[in-house]
Amino acid sequence: MHSLIQLSIAVLLLPLLSFVFLIFFNRRLPRMGDFVGVGMLGLTFGISAYIFWTVIVQHYDPAFRLAWDFTWLDFGNVPGVGPLQIKMGIVVDNLTAIMLAMVTLISFLVHLYSTGYMKGDKYYGRFFAYLGIFTFSMLGIVLSDNLFSIYIFWELVGLSSYLLIGFFFEKDSAADAQKKAFLANRVGDIGMWLGILILYSQFHTFSYREIFEHLAAGEFGLSNAWLTAAGILLFMGCVGKSAQFPLHVWLPDAMEGPTPVSALIHAATMVAAGVYFVARIFVLLTPDALHVIAFIGAFTAFMAATIAITQQDIKRVLAYSTVSQLGYMVLGLGVGAYSAALFHLVTHAFFKACLFLGSGAIIHAMHHEQDMRWMGGLRKNMPWTFVTFVIATLALAGLPLTSGFMSKDAILAGSLGFAETEGSWYFYLVPVLGFFSAMLTAFYMGRQIWLVFFGESRTHLKPADPHAHHGAHGHDGHEEEHHGVHEVAWNMRLPLVVLATLSVFIVYSPDPLDGGKGWFMKMIPTPATVVGAVHAVEPEAAAAAMGPLVAEASPLEGHDAEAALHAETPMHPEAAHAEASGEHGESHAFADPRQAEIAHLSHAAHNRAIQISSIMVVLGIGLALIVYVFRFIDPDGTAEAIRPLYLLSFNKWYWDEIYQATFIKGSMLIAAIFSWFDRNIIDGMVNGVATLTRKFAFFNGSFDKYAVDGMVNFTAFFVNTSGGVLRKLQTGKVQTYVVMALLAVFGYFVYYFAQLVS
Amino acid sequence: MLSLIVFLPVIAGLVILAVPSSQKQIIRIVSLLAAVAQMVLAVMIWRAYDPSMAGITAAAGGSPEGSFQFIERLPWITLDLGSMGSMNIEYFLGVDGLSITMVILTALVSTIGVLSSWTIQKQVKGYFLLYNLLATAMMGCFVALDFFLFYVFWELMLLPMYFLIGMWGGPNREYAAIKFFLYTLFGSVFMLLVMIALYFSVLDPLTGNHTFSLVAMADQANYVKDSILGPDNTMWRYVAFIVLFVGFAIKVPMFPFHTWLPDAHVEAPTPISVILAGVLLKLGTYGMMRINFPLFPEVFQASLYVIGVLGAINIIYGAFCALAQKDLKKMVAYSSISHMGYVLLGLAAANSEGMTGALYQMFNHGTITAMLFLLVGVIYDRAHTRQIEKFGGLASYMPVYAGVVMIAWFASLGLPGLSGFISEAFVFVGAFSAEVTRPIAMVSVLGIVFGAAYLLWSLQRMFLGKRREDAAYDLEIGEDGHEHIHFHDWKGKLDLDGRELAMLVPLAVIVIFLGIYPMPIMGLMTTSINKLVQVLSPVAMATLN
Amino acid sequence: MFELPTGAEIQSIVAALKSGAGYFIPEIYLSVLFMALILVDLAVKGRKSVLLGWLTLAGLGVSMFFIHQQHAMPGGELFFGMYVLDEFAIFFKYFAVASGMLAVVVTMADRRFEIEVKGIGEYYALLVAMVIGMVMMAASEDLLMIFLSMELVGLSAYVLSGYFKRDPRSSEAALKYLIYGAVSSGLMIYGFSLIYGMTGETNILRISAELSAHGYDPLVMMLSSLLVLAGFGYKIGAVPFHFWSPDVYEGSPTPVTAYLSVASKAAGFALLIRFFYIAIPHGGSPYEDIAGMNWLLMLSVLSVASMIYGNVVAIWQKNVKRLLAYSSIAHAGYLLLGLLVMDQIGTQAILFYLLSYLLMNYGAFYVVVLIANRTGSENLDDYRGLGRKMPLAGAALTVFLISLVGLPPTVGFIGKLFIFSALLSKGSLFVGLALVGILTSVISLYYYMLIPLNMFLRESEEPGDRSLNPGMLANVLMSILMVLTIWFGLFFEPLSQFARYSSAMFGLTLY
Amino acid sequence: MEQLAEIGLNHYLSISAILFSLGLFAVMTRRNAIVILMGVELILNAANINFLAFSKWNGGMEGVMFSLFVIVLAAAEAAVALAIIINIYKIFSSVDVSSVDAMKE
After folding, report:
1. Alpha-carbon gap, residue C125 to C278, rounded angstroms
2. CA-based nearest residue to B378, from B393, B394, B396
3. Cβ-defined contact of A712 to B428 (cutoff 8 Å)
4. In sequence order, which residues have a C-beta less than 8 Å from that of residue C357 and are 6 or more positions away?
5. Using CB atoms within 10 A of its CB, is residue B33 exposed (0-12), middle (13-18) or buried (19+)?
6. More reliable by pLDDT, B298 or A588
7. What residue spans define the domains of chain B?
8. What is the average per-residue pLDDT within B12-26?
9. Contact by Cβ (8 Å): B378, B500
10. Distance of CA A488 to the CA centre of its chain
11. Residue C492 φ then ψ, to 5°
12. Are strands A65-78 and A82-93 parallel, antiparallel or unpaired?
């Protein structure tokens, strides 16, 4: 087993250890054992940093890939299939390394941050335990090398998100939110599961690589429509997890959870897992599937942005912006801008985490005030927070010199290239929506900055609220609330600083205008599809064209990495080329003409994208300034003027109401109907029979009792009545008995006499 | 060995018979000892079991040795029936991959059941007598390889169950008990006819006599050409299959024969619910795998779609009914209807993944549902009500209980990392891989969502949030300033006490362990399942004719 | 016009009697016992019921020994073919004596006899007379003997059923039984006369020979067989000749009820089997129309009607004795199923079923008597909560009832098993009948379980957990019967072997 | 009318058939227990006539024997019956069988 594998296993298990330890012993430890969590995560981060260093910096190779697996289930010699084993394994490649580093870093920072934020909570220790299991399952998603295990960890992050959203479970809103989140994710997971099943049913394996190999070899038994379906269904998992339309409704509610959780799970890592998963299966997505993905992403980005404009809750604004940004990533994958999307995933993770932690600091300082209307002028009180927040905001808005700028523009460029490739007019909706949302993003972030940090404090405007902690000084004046709000302590400040630093362009690329020149895009080249034109070309040609994914000597058993590396490098001319001649290299790599053209055109569209998006961003910020700083336009007045639109946005396009009315009400109704059916129809023969038979007045009164007692269905009723009728023959008069017998004899006689004569 | 594990409880029962009924503690301890001994034996059998032997049918040459293990085969009844040769009934026990898992499950659950019977106060002696009789009957059903013997054990279960529900049950127990009795008897009497018909249709290849041996019956080559259930007598073979299927389906219980279950569960005392859901339901599906399908493979192949659809109905219908329940125990009862639907679906897949999933699901459902009912019992003991809306916010006041409930509930809704997930997953894998059941599988996945829905909803209503106004317990501020609750007339420990933990923790450990690494149980069954699938496959039948 | 027999003929007659007497010992012995009991009753003064009881018991026990002797003897006809000795007959001799002994036991347990009647002597004497009658019924091979033995049983039964003179129900039972019995035996004898007219023979072997040799007028044959069937049907209490039985069973003293429901039904079957198998000439296949009529259909109708009617109407009964009466009608139906098959396994099934019926039915009646002694009632509602007060009796009764339903592991289950095996051994021919039998037995579960339901699941009105111990002897007996019921349910080999051995009849080779 | 010129088997059989029917009629219609018993006697005697006639025409003794036994048993039966009926009269103070129907469904 390669040392990196061992290390990544350690990375995977340490947080689990922290969970197990804390869940059982947190009450027995000093400080409820938070140091255990922080320490473990620190260690985890250290190891992943080392992995990152070795993988990305040392072998600087796009095709780097390590794999190790073991037989988890053994079905023996299955009739019709042959020996069948289900394997579990780990894969370490560039993407994994980067994700590991990112996840562990943010998780570590959040742990640290929480020591300040959650201090004094009743279940302080349990909180760290939950964070531990979340980190564990998230790392599992990152590391796993097959669909089955990723599904397992997929649900486990769902669980930990469930636990953490409902951490304040005594609040009904929190309990509702956690249930909603879990169920919404379950719906997505069903799709994902069906997708997995489609693939398994064809290949009897879960492993990515084997599936890709089979696909590349054109062994997919069902029609192409099934393959598209598989892609879309797998994407449903992402729709659930990454809160894409139509399953986005859970994420804003998830803000009921503690803010560090929002930062870690619902901004940086878990919600990005959906994107990560789609990236993992990117190569098997057919063009049709990609179209669906692209449109859903674009629509989500736009819709969420419009909603974010009107929200009052500081965290909700960020939540919707998260949805919107995830929409971008999905859009990016949909249009084939693979690297760009993943790039945006990482950059977004950092600056959005920064924003959430910042807002957390504000909320903490404001004594759990979340409504932006009652904030304002905080820049004086909280300089550190202010600065980091602004940096992250710029990155989110996508201003030059920030990381967000590079990644977003790469995506938009990709979308342009995509639209041009596909040709017909409606594909242009994708880039249009993308650019428009860029403007909206800039606008609502500008609004938020202004409402929170600039102007005068509006705390005193807040109507008195006995329940709020700071209700004591609701109405007293300026000074009063000023020494109410202070900058937060170092353990909450440090994460802000680190994350803000990571939102600057230089970390990723020397050229502030082009991420393509950066190490990231080079290390994460767009893999060649295995389904596009694959049926045209020869299997092994396709296999070769698949780039890193299938390029291993002995795919099945775990093996020595060096060998793998030797086996790989020669097989990737394009990889080498890419290193040599920068971004242009990629386009030659693709066997699939469509993919090649997209790559080409999107590169061509690069500059246009920059120009348009910069204009959009400037427009957005300008609008924000006009509205909130110079007050040329009165926001409330405008809101009145366009009330329907305002309401639509303010009420989140009414999705919650719609779902409530249709699905939830619907299933409740069905449930009611079914159980009624169960009680009254299927089982109800009994009672129905009882009522029926009461009409037979000449039965003895105990009939009900007997019937309802023992009789199970209609035969019971029949048996009983027939009994009731037959017994009437028993008159008690002996002569009738005799007559009966004689009649019987006579009857027989007549019967056979008739037979004889005939 | 097997005889011992089967008849231990009866021996215990005889001992109890000698104990004066005033000595409740002794009676309990005796039964517990018997159950534990059974457990130990089960583990020994498990350790000594060789997973590479297939079972299902006889080994080459028609002798069960080399195919089954721990065989005990004695001539029991040998009658000369003149024109029809001699009637041979054998005392024929043995285990293969199908039974061994169920044997372990039975031993486990009946031990738990004894522990949970500790609270029974009324007529302890009679109770444990019947309980031990029941335990013997259940274990016997799983290890019997002679149809006659199987039938005897099968019917032997009814009477104790009738009295256990009827005498120690809830207010409406008479109804529930007689309903259970009539329903299940209705199912099994037809089995008697089929059994006799099979007897006249099958010849034991070794002795050349008619036989009740299930091993001989499982091999289509042993059927007499022009007998009533002979290979060419299609009509009667279909009839027999359907009759058997209905008989077993009633036990499962399969829609629309399920209505006895909610009543029986709601009325039965906790330990009996545990036994009922934990083991008895499994007998239905076990019977299908052991008897119904291998004996009539071609009919089975012909009716895959129907079975699958019925399974899907069970899954979804049960889930919806559970969603609508107000009584916690009734909800759990419907949930087990829903979960047994997965088993049916997996069987309908008729491939290794599906069947393994089904059998594994039987085991997991046994442990998980046992936990669920025990937990319901815990809260019922305290609050004397099971109405969900009578609770709320319990998580703050009974953290340990809430924790265990979390494990059980999530295991039941199929959360990965807990055993329920793996079995359901492979049921779906199998069902989807099979052409016939693919559309059914695509529909039944909805069950996953609604399963999550009713479980999470009940979880929220009972444990999260704050105490309701009309809750079944009072709130008070303890001396330490924290809030506490206390139930009316409940003297014991508020949170789980030692006995309850002793029942629940082992189950929880098993559920978690088998969720992470299923091979210890799954490894036992794979060979037999593959053999079964191979026996059932159309290929095998083609080679036969 | 008739010339007197010559001396030689008389010699031969005497010789035949002498030779026959050797094979006639049990009957002779029982007749002696009968007279002895009357004499003892006259001779001994004071309370002698217990003494007489034990005496009868012992006497019958001894007769077992004489019957056992007959196994060794070569079977064959006696007294000019009036009488026959074969395994079949021996079986029923055992059966009659055994059930007689059980009847005595039940009688000795029944308190009502001390209350109701002064002189118990005639009772036992008549019981023994009935035993003799039944012993002869099973062995008689001549219409005359059949008639005589049936009348012997009948007359003693009339008296016994009315033995509680001051109890109107008992007297009513006697009257109904008398009238019904007299009429049906009248019908039967008229039928006999017609058969005699057709064949000029009264020995059933020679009758069948005659019929198959010279043929017959189907109309007359049918009429006569119907009349005979009416007579037998009344003995076995099958629908539609059953009407007397519920009332008589309810009214008669419980031991008599038990005795009638088991022994006289069994004897009736013995006659039916013998007459049906032997007198009616069978063609090549047993299932084609015989003697111009479709016997198969007729008997099927009888048995199906009995099963359905008996079980269905039993659901309504509140009086346990009456309930058991109806159930015995149903059991006649099950037994007829065995007769239908008309082959050796069918006969064997019937004999086994009768044995099981002997055990479980007597057991049930015995417990009923014990309970009646304590509660003074045979009403279902008065059984509430008895399970707590008489646990052993409750358990035993439950076992007997389960066995009557036919659930394993009881002997009743094996009986049903054999019956259905006999049916299904004929392929799919009788599946329909088997289905009816199965379904009706499910119905029977319901009403049988009403009794344990009341005993265990319901609480009695009057409080107090006073345990009603029926006494050591009774407990032992109950336990023995219960254990036997279960033991033979698990290890029925000896019983079924015996039944098989006994299914051989003189002058008949079964298919 | 020719074959009726001399007494033949058919005459006897017709007589017995008529007797039999009368007996059945009595049994079915009469309320008085005694009369019902007389009806039974008629039936038995019908049988006797048959037996005798047949034994004369078949030329065998069995019929005669049979009828003798039937007569004897009829007497015995009558004795028992009377005893029972008297007891009934003691209790119900009537011998009307239709009034004796305490036991019924």
Report:
1. 33
2. B394
3. no
4. C262, C266, C331, C412, C415
5. middle
6. B298
7. 308-545
8. 88
9. yes
10. 31
11. -95, 10
12. antiparallel
CA triple C339-C343-C346, angle to 5 deg: 50
**Does the distance separating the beta carbons of A730 and C313 come in below 8 Å?**
yes
Closest chain A CA to residue C247: A732
Taking the C-alpha atoms of residue C505 and residue C508, their distance in angstroms, rounded to an integer, is: 6
CB count within 10 Å of CB A544 equals 18
What pLDDT digit, counting tens, does each position of C8-64 carry?
888 888 888 888 888 888 999 999 999 999 898 888 877 778 888 899 999 999 999
Cβ within 8 Å of residue B276, ≥6 positions away: B161, B264, B265, B268
Give ∠ CA C313-C314-C319 in degrees, rounded to 5.
125
Cite the beta strand spans of A494-619 per DSSP E.
Answer: none
**Strand-strand pairing, B86-95 and B473-477:** unpaired
Got the DSSP string for C3-23? PPPPHHHHHHHHHHHHHHHHT
* Chain A contact residues (CB < 8 Å to C): 700, 706, 709-711, 719-720, 722-724, 726-727, 729-730, 732, 734-738, 740-745, 748-749, 752-753, 755-756
Tell me which DSSP letter residue B494 carries.
Answer: S
- Phi, psi at residue A389, to the nearest 5°? -60, -45
Task: Please give the structure tokens belonging to residue B429.
Answer: 């894998």
Residues of D in contact with C194 (CB under 8 A): 50
| Alpha-carbon dihedral angle through residues B344, B345, B346, B350, given to the nearest 10 degrees | 100
Joined tokens for residue B533: 């699938």
- Residue linked to tokens 């879990």: A182
Asked if B80 and C500 come within 8 Å (Cβ–Cβ), the reply is yes
Q: What letter represents residue A208's amino acid?
A: Y
Q: Could you tell me which of C426, C423, C398, C425 has the C-alpha nearest to residue C412?
A: C398
Look at residue B348 in the predicted model and tell me its pLDDT: 92
Q: What would the mean pLDDT of B33-51 be, rounded to a whole number? A: 92
Span B163-197, pLDDT tens digits: 999 888 888 888 888 888 888 888 888 889 999 88
* B475 close to C (CB below 8 A): no
pTM: predicted TM-score of the whole model, two decimal places: 0.88
Contacts of C99 (CB under 8 A, 6+ apart): C259, C262, C263, C266, C358, C362
Query: Tokens representing A318?
Result: 């960020």
Q: What distance in Å separates residue D2's CA from the closest CA in chain C?
A: 24
Residue reference for tokens 């026996």: B535
Q: Omega of the bond prior to C409 within 30 degrees of 0, cis? A: yes
D68–C contact, CB cutoff 8 A? no
Taking only the tens place, the pLDDT of each residue in A368-408 is: 777 777 777 777 888 888 888 888 888 888 888 888 888 88
Cβ atoms within 10 Å of B491's Cβ, excluding its own: 6
Q: What six digits make up the tokens of A402?
A: 């920030």
From residue B238, alpha-carbon distances to A424, B228, C283 in Å are: 59, 11, 35
- Tell me how far the alpha carbon of residue D23 is from its chain's centroid: 6
What are the pLDDT digits (tens) for A50-69? 998 888 888 888 888 888 88
